[in-house]
Amino acid sequence: MNVTVNPDDATNKNVNYEINPKVEGLSVSDNGKIEWTADAPAGEYTTTVTTDDGNYTDTHVLTLTEPDPEEGD
After folding, report:
1. N- to C-terminal Cα distance for the chain?
2. How many domains, the chain?
């Protein structure tokens, strides 16, 4: 995720990321990179970014689906 904190001259542009629900195989890094493994179950997950200064928030919804079965399965 790319985040822009406004105004451009803000002195504190630090943000924190949290993803819910928390499940094994799904994570968001301190710089907003969302990663998942085959262990992450299908479903909808909401990532919330919160500013350190003012506690302003925004969200992003990620939908993971089951992969299509390969031919012959």
Report:
1. 35
2. 1
